[in-house]
Structures are given as structure tokens and as C-alpha cells.
Design a protein that fits this description.
Chain B: This is LacI family transcriptional regulator. Chain B: Pfam families: Peripla_BP_4 (PF13407). Chain B: Keywords: Signal. Chain B: It is found in: Periplasm. The complex is a heterodimer of chains A (337) and B (335). By secondary structure, chain A is mostly helical. Chain A has 14 helices and 4 strands. A two-stranded antiparallel sheet of chain A has the order 1-4. The two termini of chain A are 14 Å apart. Chain B has a 7-stranded mixed β-sheet, sandwiched between helices. Chain B is elongated and about 60 Å long. In chain B, strand 1, helix 2 and strand 2 form a beta-alpha-beta unit. Chain B contains 10 helices and 14 strands. Chain B starts with 8 loop residues before the first helix and ends in a 9-residue tail after the last strand. In chain B, helix 2 crosses helix 10, helix 5 packs across helix 6 and helix 8 runs parallel beside helix 9. Chain B folds into 2 domains: 174 residues, Rossmann fold (3-Layer(aba) Sandwich); 133 residues, Response regulator (Rossmann fold). The chains are: A mainly alpha (337), B alpha/beta (335).
């Protein structure tokens, strides 16, 4: 390890701190197994969407994905309606679950690929393109469901996905960690990951190096869509019902999580592990505030303050300076981010 | 230990609470009830909070509070409920943003032994009791009766709904039409105009109707902003006091039009009372009381509730909490 990741460090410290404060403030109740499971159960939705935003941001050139939650809802609604029309939930729960989950992932990936296609082929600014597709996805979900919520039901297999425990850990959280691990591996060890970051860091250089920009962008947005589709599966599994207007506030929170994780908004840098920790931090914080009984307006304030702190940490490389100052002998190796 | 019919309002409620406190409701001591509203910081739920706070004062041995998301998003409300379940409150009184989304978490709450009471969600399956302020048909008929009184039982009239898909609004105007049949001289014209709860759009539409039917005598409206739009159109046409307008609305925004006579009367239910009724019901369930038809929740408008089968295993508790006020009386419930 040549350098210390400031965000990783601060996030880890924050998580420990929040757990300690929460435990103290609630007389241990916050650290009860039930609450830890309950919190872990809430992380995946927003975490998956934030990973999607991170991927889009990494691609540079103003990359962002605003269509995440809309696509998650659309995939849940559309796949739910199709699966319900094919299988009776009660008679073939496993088959139903597989069809439903597969449908969600497929729709998510196609929706994401559409974003990538529009952005790469027609050179549409990502923020405008995904804003447009966000509305289109929401609209489609409204039309398919006639504005009502779609009841997916709780067949055993699907219910376990959203609410079950494996060795005491919520299944949805394990799925989230699994997806993050795979994606982190892809970004780190495959040529695609390398090319994505290089394209994001310097699009011009990437172009002259002969990178297939269209393919990289389409893959990236398709992956982002895939994460949204996975979020759609988990939302349906947790809530029994899916609806087009679920989680409208997730849009900005997902971006907040990504930025807190130190993903560079101009592209070229972002680590999945940080996004995971960042999503966990935000969850711990908001659950803590709910536990203590603060107004939810305080939560917005706390999140805002947290975001500003992280921007400061990144901008001024506070962690690095701190470490440099306290380990005199290694001052020469003060890293640059 | 049934509460006898002491119907002297607040005093009665307090006395009853003290009585209840004295008799084996030790089970409730230190118990917590958290009210979760759709969204915090809007007048409707601020008003509800005054009720919850009042109830908290009357029951200082219990932990009673109201929370709600800062943004109108069912996912945010879901998160709050889930955290509260984990925190282990004893009872939840929820006004669901979207009943369907909360089904899962409310079921888990009940599985954990938490008492769940809802409001404004007569289609909620996973609840022990859903409190409704009034019977929708009775409310619609009452609005229409007030309108007929103003119109002297004759003349053209029309109706507005938020949207044709809004179940309660259609029930209200449907009951209104039914009631108007008592007055053969009342003629319904162009009914069920959609307002989409938008005062500006309603204003335009009301102007059109006034042009098309210069002799129209009455409007019955449904969505909260309809009275404002129609009221403005009536006032600008110089017809205040000549054309009758009765509909759902809130006192504060409607005050000016009520004073000028552009709005004849507004109907609503008081969220303050609804908040107290939910908490009162939750307290009773915590104390192990049976929910029975005609029971007294100790809150005005809920002194003799009717109990019906709910959408799921729970019951529907319907009060008589409708409030109908006009120029002379609206100041009594100003919010």
C-alpha cells in the first residue's frame, strides 16, 4: 500500500463512532441484533443505486445516472406484471421468483443500455439523457400499472430474498455485498475496469489510444441499470408491493452516497468498497436519529454537514496531512490523490 | 371498565384517562406510542401534532410522540417505521403515505408484538384497527344537505372531484347526488368535473361552468383546493352570496372566501382529533381492551364509534368526526 485512502479511513472511523454513540445513546438497544439486522436490511436499495451512480460518474464527461430508482421501480412493476400473468404465485413460488428476478435484472440492464446508447451515439449530456429516461421509465411504470401499486405477493423464495437471514445476516445485504464484490473485482482486475477509469480521467487520451468509447459507455450504463434492476428485486421482496413512485427521494441520496464515498464527479476515480461503507454510514446515521427521536429535518441537516465534511476531506487531503504531521519520518512520502 | 357516556369534552377525556389510570392500566405505564405521519411540517400534520401533544400531556406516564419524513416519499416513511420497530416501541399509530408499501413492515411489527393502528387507510390489511373520521357516504350527504339548505332546495348544481380515480371523492359526490334526490327541484348539471386538487385549474373550470350555466346555483367540491378555485371564480363574477359553494376545505386558507360569502361552508375532519383518537385507541389495545361497536375513545367526534370488518384481520373504526363550518363558526377550529 503506497497511500492511504482518506475516505476509506474516515468512513471506517465514522462507522465505529456511530455504532458507539448509538449504543450509548439508546442504552445498548441500537446495538441489538434485531436492529443491526434491520439496518443491514435497509442498506441494499440505496447502496445498489449508489453503485450505479458511481459507475456513471467514473465514466467522466459529466457522467451521472438519474434514472436509477425510476428504472428499479419500472423493472419491479413490469417484471411483476409479466411474472404474475405467467405463474400463479402460490403454485410455483420458486419458478415465479426466478422469473420475476430474472425479468427485473433484464429490464434493468436494457434500460441502462438504452441510457448508454443514447449518451454515446447521440452525444447527449448524461444528466439530460438520464433525466429524460427517468421520466420515461416512471411514465412507463405508471402506464403498465395504471398508477396503482402492483402486489407481487410474498412467495417463500422471494420473501426470503428480502427478509430472510443467512447465518444471522439479512439475505438482501449479502446479495448487495456480493454484487459489490463482483463489481469491485471487475473494475480492478479486468481491462474494462481499467479502460473505464482511463476514459473517465482523460477522454481525449482514451480516444487516441483506440479505446472503443461507445462500448465502454454502454457497458457502464448497462451495469448501472443492472444494479437498479437488482434494487428492484430487493424492493419487491421487502415490501410485497411495488409502485412507480416509490423512493423518489433516493435519487439525491444515491448521489450523496457516491460523493461521500469520494467518487470523483469529473470521472476517473471511484471505489466500490467506499460506496458500500458510505451507504452503511448514512444508514447508521439516519437510524440513529430515528432512534433518538430527532426530527427528520435534522437528518437532512446532518447528511448535508457530513457531505461538506467529506468534500473538505477530499479537497484538502486532511487525512494525509494529519498522518504526515504525526509521522515525521515518512514526511517525504506525503501522497497525492 | 367501560367508559360511561361522559360527553363533556376534554374534561371527560381527562377524567376518563385518570380513572383508567387508577384501574389496572398499569400495563400502559411507561409504554410508548409513536405516531408516524405522511410528512412533517405541513399544516395538516402540524395540527395533528397538537392533538398528539395534548394526548401526551394527558398521559404523562406514557412516552408519546409524533414523527414523519421530511419529504413526501413512501420509502422514507417505510424507513422510519422500520427503525421504530427495531427500536421497540410498544405501539405505532401510522398515517400511511401508501398503505401497500407499508404492508410488509407493519406485519413484521405486529409479529414482534407491537400494536399497530392506522388512519386514512381503510384498505390497509396489516393493521389491528384503522381509524376513519367519518363514514364517507354520511359526509357526502351532509355536504349536500348544507348545499341544499343554502339553495333553498332548488336550482342547477354541479360537482367537482379531485380525479375520477379518487375513491373517496367519488363516494362523497355519489352520496351527495343521492341526497339531492330529496329535492326534486335541484338539477344536477355537468357533474364530476376533475380538479386535480389544483386551485388554478379549478378556477378556470368554474369560470367556464358559470359562463355555460349563468343560472347555476350550487357547487359541491371534494379536493382540498377546490373550494379556493371555485370560490375565487364566484367572487370575481360578483356572485358571492348568490351562488352556493360547499366542499372539503381547510379553515385557514378558506377564511377570506368564507368571510366574503364566496364559500358557503366547508367540511373537513380535524386531524388534531384524529391524532388523539388513534393514540386513545392504541392505549386501549395496549391495555387489552376489546374494540367494540359504540365504544368511547374519549375524543370529540369519537365518543361512539362504529366498528366494522377491515380489509384484513383488523377492524375499521369509524367515528363521527366530520366538521362542517361556515362564516360564523369557522374561527372555532382555525388551523
Amino acid at each position: 500500500m503506497s497511500k492511504l485512502d482518506g475516505n476509506l479511513f474516515v468512513l471506517s472511523v465514522l462507522i465505529v463512532l456511530l455504532l458507539a454513540v448509538g449504543g450509548a445513546a439508546s442504552g445498548g438497544n441500537y446495538l441489538s441484533i434485531y436492529n443491526l439486522q434491520s439496518m443491514a436490511n435497509q442498506v441494499p436499495e440505496i447502496g445498489l443505486l449508489a453503485i450505479g451512480v458511481m459507475l456513471a460518474m467514473c465514466s467522466g464527461n459529466g457522467g451521472i445516472d438519474l434514472s436509477g430508482i425510476a428504472l428499479a421501480n419500472l423493472s419491479g412493476v413490469a417484471s411483476g406484471l409479466v411474472a404474475l400473468s405467467i405463474f400463479p404465485v402460490d403454485e410455483a413460488p420458486v419458478l415465479f421468483t426466478i422469473t420475476f428476478a430474472g425479468g427485473c435484472l433484464l429490464i434493468g440492464m436494457l434500460g441502462g443500455a438504452l441510457n448508454g446508447f443514447l449518451i454515446s451515439r447521440f452525444e447527449i449530456t448524461p444528466i439530460l439523457c438520464t433525466l429524460g429516461t427517468q421520466m420515461a421509465f416512471t411514465g412507463a411504470a405508471v402506464v403498465f400499472s395504471e398508477g396503482r401499486s402492483v402486489m407481487i405477493g410474498s412467495p417463500p423464495a422471494l420473501y426470503d430474498l428480502g427478509n430472510g437471514l443467512i447465518f444471522g445476516v439479512p439475505a438482501s445485504f449479502l446479495i448487495f455485498l456480493g454484487a459489490a464484490l463482483i463489481l469491485g473485482g471487475v473494475l480492478r482486475f479486468t481491462p474494462y475496469g481499467m479502460k473505464l477509469m482511463l476514459t473517465g480521467a482523460n477522454p481525449k487520451a482514451a480516444l487516441f489510444s483506440g479505446f472503443n468509447r461507445d462500448r465502454i459507455l454502454i457497458t457502464t450504463y448497462a451495469l448501472s441499470g443492472l444494479m437498479a434492476g437488482l434494487a428492484g428485486v430487493i424492493i419487491a421482496a421487502r415490501n410485497i408491493n411495488v409502485k412507480w413512485d416509490y423512493g423518489t427521494s433516493y435519487l439525491l441520496i444515491a448521489i450523496l452516497v457516491a460523493v461521500m464515498a469520494g467518487v470523483r464527479p469529473d470521472g476517473g476515480y471511484g471505489r466500490v468498497v467506499n460506496v458500500v461503507l458510505s451507504a452503511i454510514t448514512l444508514q447508521l446515521l439516519s437510524s440513529l436519529l430515528n432512534f433518538v427521536g430527532f426530527s427528520n429535518f435534522v437528518r437532512d441537516f446532518a447528511w448535508g454537514a457530513l457531505l461538506l465534511c467529506f468534500l473538505a476531506v477530499n479537497r484538502f487531503e486532511l487525512v494525509d496531512q494529519f498522518i504526515t504531521r504525526f509521522s515525521l519520518g515518512r514526511a517525504a512520502r506525503a501522497p497525492k490523490n | 371498565m367501560a367508559f360511561k357516556g361522559l360527553k363533556i369534552g376534554l374534561l371527560a377525556a381527562t377524567t376518563a384517562a385518570m380513572l383508567a389510570g387508577a384501574q389496572g392500566v398499569a400495563a400502559q405505564e411507561g409504554k410508548s406510542i409513536t405516531t408516524v405521519v405522511k410528512i412533517s411540517g405541513i399544516p395538516w400534520f402540524d395540527r395533528m401534532k397538537t392533538g398528539v401533544e395534548k394526548y401526551a400531556q394527558e398521559h404523562s406516564d406514557m412516552k408519546i410522540e409524533q414523527v414523519g419524513p421530511a419529504t413526501a416519499d413512501s420509502a422514507q416513511q417505510l424507513q422510519i417505521v422500520q427503525d421504530l420497530v427495531a427500536r421497540g416501541v410498544d405501539a405505532l399509530a401510522v398515517v400511511p403515505m401508501d398503505p401497500a408499501i407499508l404492508e410488509g413492515v407493519l406485519k413484521r411489527a405486529m409479529d414482534r408484538g407491537i400494536v399497530v393502528v392506522t388512519h386514512e387507510a381503510d384498505n390497509q390489511k396489516n393493521t389491528m384497527a384503522d381509524v376513519e373520521a367519518f363514514d364517507n357516504a354520511e359526509y357526502g350527504a351532509a355536504l349536500n344537505e348544507r348545499l341544499a339548505k343554502c339553495m333553498d332546495g332548488k336550482g342547477k348544481w354541479t360537482t367537482f372531484v379531485g380525479s375520477l380515480g379518487s375513491r373517496t371523492h367519488m363516494q362523497w359526490v355519489g352520496a351527495g347526488e343521492e341526497n339531492a334526490k330529496k329535492y326534486p327541484d335541484m338539477e344536477l348539471v355537468d357533474p364530476n368535473n376533475e380538479s386535480f386538487d389544483d386551485a388554478q385549474g379549478t378556477y378556470e373550470k368554474a369560470k367556464e361552468i358559470l359562463r355555460k350555466h349563468p343560472d347555476i346555483k350550487g357547487f359541491q367540491t371534494s379536493a382540498g383546493n377546490d373550494v379556493l378555485g371555485v370560490g375565487r371564480a364566484i367572487e370575481e363574477a360578483g356572485l358571492a352570496g348568490k351562488v352556493c359553494l360547499v366542499g372539503t376545505g381547510l379553515p385557514n386558507p378558506s377564511a377570506a372566501y368564507l368571510d366574503s360569502g364566496a364559500i358557503t361552508a366547508i367540511g373537513f375532519w380535524d386531524p388534531q382529533k384524529a391524532g388523539m383518537a388513534m393514540n386513545s385507541l392504541a392505549t386501549k389495545i395496549l391495555a387489552g381492551e376489546e374494540i367494540t361497536d359504540g365504544m368511547d375513545l374519549g375524543v370529540d367526534g369519537y365518543h361512539s364509534v362504529s366498528v366494522r370488518p377491515g380489509a384484513g384481520d383488523g377492524v375499521l373504526v369509524v367515528g363521527n368526526g366530520m366538521v362542517l363550518v361556515d362564516k360564523d363558526t369557522y374561527k372555532e377550529t382555525l388551523f
